[in-house]
Amino acid sequence: MFQPLYVAATGLNAFEDELLNITNNVSNSKTVGFKKSDSQMESLPYVQRSFKDELAWAMQADKSVPSVFPEFGTGVKVAATLKDFSQGTLENTSNPLDIAVQGAGFLQVKMPDGSIGYTRAGNLHADNDGNLVDSNGHLVDPAVILPSGTTGVVIQQNGTMLVSINNSTSLASIGQITLSRFSNPEGLRSMGQNLYSATDSSGDPIVGYPLDPGFGAITQYALESSNVDVISEMMRMVMVQRVFDTITKAVSTYEGMLTALERMKA
Question: Collapsing DSSP states into helix, strand and coil, what is residue 199?
Fold first, then answer.
């Protein structure tokens, strides 16, 4: 008897999840390398009215039992949350260790458990031992070490790192940044801290160097900004609010119908 209320509840839950996605997107609109998420919804299973119910209805309405019973939806749910890995715009910085990837590649960092994490956030720096690390202190993988006395760094588009020592005019190569790409990046699992891990859905990482086909190029003195369009997210927020209002209006209407029905029975 209260099925409309249960169906309405599924809608409220689903759009609450959608609002959660939107607020997370907006909150990270200034996060380096952040990729926005979008909820994919699907309908819940349909139920068919039973022969017993149809027979009772037909007898009450003096009609024949239909050959095809009507079916009713049971609501909606969020089936998946998909990441949008479209390119963010590049913002220039004054830090020579800031890099941005223009293309599909991900920077690799070594996690505390020895696994590899993948990120688009190129705000790198050197730790006390000269190791190149990300903003959370994870070592860039493969390791790159800036020698003591480094006074200048040049990072080429192919990821080759050149340094000058003690203001020398000559440059020495200390390594090359490696990138990974995935056949299905939408299948990556978000770990927070701008990091992702590979999953069965993403497939195994394909490792290569910047400027290799399909990996993209490195730009020094730049960071990739979040790909969140705040105006679009606000429009989505208004849409969610209107759906919320409509569902609560439906609940209120159904409650009024029940009240009227009880009065008729009294």
Answer: coil
